[in-house]
Design goal:
This is Radical SAM protein. One of its GO terms (molecular function) is metal ion binding. Keywords: Iron, Iron-sulfur, Metal-binding. Pfam families: Radical_SAM. It comes from Pyrobaculum arsenaticum. It contains 10 helices and 12 strands. By secondary structure, it is α/β, with parallel strands linked by helices. It has one domain (8-210, 252-293): Aldolase class I (TIM Barrel). Strands 1-2-5-6-7-8-9-12 form an 8-stranded mixed beta sheet. The chain has a two-stranded antiparallel ribbon with strand order 3-4.
Length: 301
């Protein structure tokens, strides 16, 4: 019998076969995200996606959903928003949800661009072994990040979050995601992100190439008009349309993801790709959502 759930739902409702991670649930305390990343995919299915607002009656709905979900299940915060999107600093909904989940015995994966996660370090440390955090860092170039991710905290703050989480015993993944042709796909950028991630204490690197949708492509093309013709050719003429998105040509993706995999190996990081075909590049037993690190604590503790 199918269980009716409101806000804590099985992840990956589209059933993308390129998602190789184990089953988990997803929970978005907010609708939309204030980081306003040009490459963001949620604008294709969430109205007013860059105007984040809390889910109505969130806490009561989470409580009711958890009565139907087995203890010990994995819940991801969040995949269609950032759980630490700007309103969270005042509202604290993610903190309340995090406490509910962990106090009831669930395992939690956090995916964010915000150092605000450090506010909840006390909660995370009380539940070592049942939490893992992923911090997205696409580039260390402050000028590029300011254009690509205008509402997000700057990369230096995210690296500091990686360091402090790792020192507190929380296993951390850095997501170099997305890798965008002509912007952050060069060896210098990839090596820079990977080396600084390892230096800060991350244990795991995830890399993925940009997948184009019409709306996020339009934003990128407007911001970088000199690169738009090359992107248009790569994606819409030479690329592949897979699972509702345009992918860059396979030869390009193999080249750039191999570059990231080799950098991860040089710095002794586990490595995964996300929604790409090239599983042979990955660390055996590791998953792009970082769920393999649940049950572990950082070696820095």
């Amino acid at each position: 019998m199918r269980v009716s759930l409101n806000v804590v739902r099985p992840f990956d409702p589209w059933g993308n076969p390129l998602c190789r991670c184990p089953f988990k649930y997803g929970l978005n305390p907010y609708t939309g995200c204030g980081h306003r990343c040009l490459y963001c995919y949620i604008t294709s299915y969430i109205p007013n996606a860059f105007s984040p607002r809390p889910k109505e009656d969130l806490i009561d709905k989470v409580r009711r959903d958890l009565e139907k979900i087995p203890r010990g299940a994995v819940v991801s915060l969040s995949n269609s928003s950032d759980p630490y999107t700007p309103p969270e600093a005042q509202l604290g909904l993610t903190r309340r949800v995090l406490q509910m989940l962990l106090e009831r015995g669930y395992k939690v994966l956090i995916v964010t661009k915000s150092p605000l996660v450090l506010r909840d370090l006390d909660v995370l440390q009380r539940h070592l072994g049942r939490v893992a955090v992923q911090i997205t860092i696409t580039t260390l170039r402050e000028d590029l990040a300011a254009v690509l991710e205008p509402g997000a905290p700057r990369p230096v703050g995210r690296l500091e979050a990686v360091r402090r989480l790792s020192e507190a015993g929380i296993p951390v993944t850095v997501r170099l995601d997305p890798i965008i042709p002509l912007l952050n796909d060069d060896g210098e950028n990839i090596e820079g992100v990977v080396s600084k991630a390892a230096e800060a204490g991350a244990r795991h690197l995830v890399a993925s190439t940009y997948k184009a949708k019409r709306d996020n492509f339009a934003r990128l093309a407007k911001a970088f008009p000199d690169k738009a013709p090359t992107w248009r050719r790569m994606y819409f003429e030479e690329g592949q349309y897979l699972h509702g998105q345009w992918y860059a040509p396979k030869e390009y993706r193999i080249k750039v993801l191999t570059r990231a995999a080799e950098a991860a190996r040089r710095h002794s990081l586990q490595f995964n790709i996300c929604r790409e075909e090239f599983a042979d590049l990955e660390t055996p037993g590791a998953y792009c959502d970082g769920s393999h690190m649940l049950g572990e604590a950082s070696q820095r503790i």
